[in-house]
Amino acid sequence: MRLLIAATACALAIAGAASAQDYNADPNYGDITLSPGFTPDPHLVSLRAGGDVSATAAGSACSGYITSAPDFRLNWSGKGSLNLRISVLSKADTTLVVNGPNGEWYCDDDTGEDNNPLVTLGSVAGRYEIWVGTYSSGDPAPAVLSISELSSF
After folding, report:
1. 141/89 Cα distance (integer angstroms)
2. pTM
3. How far is it, in rounded angstroms, from Cα 57 to Cα 18?
4. pLDDT for res 47
5. Which residues of 17-35 are buried (b: 16+ CB within 10 A; e: fewer)?
6. 16 phi and psi, to 5 degrees?
7. What does the pLDDT look like over 3-28, one tens digit per residue?
8. Which terminus of the chain, N or C, has fewer Cβ atoms within 10 Å?
9. Is the pLDDT score of 1 beyond 80?
10. Residue 32: helix, strand or coil by DSSP?
11. CA nearest 71: which of 147, 146, 17, 145?
12. Is 2 helix (H, G, I), strand (E, B) or coil?
């Protein structure tokens, strides 16, 4: 009985953590539909990074603080020959959390240029929810989200 109670409590804790990011909520800074070969490339979105929800709820590899609603939503038609690169440019120490069309979470902190976050994905069609985080809860920072097929820009 004790084992059943402990397992139920653990399952509820995991379910509660996973629901911290509401990928169906209206994005804070809009959305766009893009296809391979889109112009201008990169597509840039100015936003305020950060929030008060721990990004670790999306996975142990995720870090920083984000909002519960995505910052931006990308509807990608896919079928391109180039990888899709989602990155952030900011003077603040930012993080990146992406929920892919298959429900898989992708996170990064310092892979991109100047230790900015970068997630490189194959050209898989579908809806991508994107969050840009900071390391201080409730301390938003100016940032630019970049969506590109180019290897450098």
Report:
1. 11
2. 0.85
3. 5
4. 98
5. eeeebebeeebbbebeebe
6. -65, -40
7. 333 333 333 333 333 447 898 999 99
8. N
9. no
10. strand
11. 145
12. helix
The order of strands in the sheet holding 141-148 is: 43-49, 141-148, 84-89, 118-121
Q: How many angstroms separate the CA atoms of 142 and 136, rounded?
A: 13
Write out pLDDT tens, residues 91-129: 999 999 999 999 999 999 999 988 899 999 998 999 999
Residue 130 has which token pair? 């994107």
Rounded CA-CA distance 20/23 in Å is 9
Residue whose token pair is 């084992």? 3
Q: How far is CA 55 from the centre of its chain?
A: 9
Q: What is the DSSP letter of 26?
A: P
Give the CB-side neighbour count of residue 103, counting CA atoms within 13 A: 2
Token readout for 46 is: 């100015």
